[in-house]
Amino acid sequence: MKLSLEEAEKFHGHLGPYLVIGMRIGEYAMEQLGITPYFDLKVEVECPPKPPVRCLVDGLQLVTGATYGKANILVKEQNKHVRVKITNTKNNREIQIELHPDIPIKIERWYQ
Length: 112
Hints:
The structure is a single chain. The radius of gyration is 13 Å and the shape is globular. It has one domain: CATH 3.30.1330. A four-stranded mixed beta sheet has the order 2-1-3-4, with helices on one face. The termini are far apart. It has helices at residues 5-12, 17-33, 56-64, 102-110, and strands at 41-47, 73-77, 83-88, 94-98. It has four helices and four strands.
């Protein structure tokens, strides 16, 4: 599902780097796995429990259509890394993406 940044901003409340990172991860993984939004996928996220890093979850929800209501997105609190795994539940193919540890540090510096 291709969404505009304006649509993402409206959903999330503001446009930030982690929202966009979540969207790009979701788009890339779905393309690689050959899946369409909403069903036949599972999203697992490991990230810090608070914004701004956790904002990537909203980007993932927007693009993948995974929601807490459908129970196809799971977020585990983790302060050491940011990792996303998206699984095609029809064939169990999955893709896992981990942010390089320097990315949150560099983004934080932009706002100082």
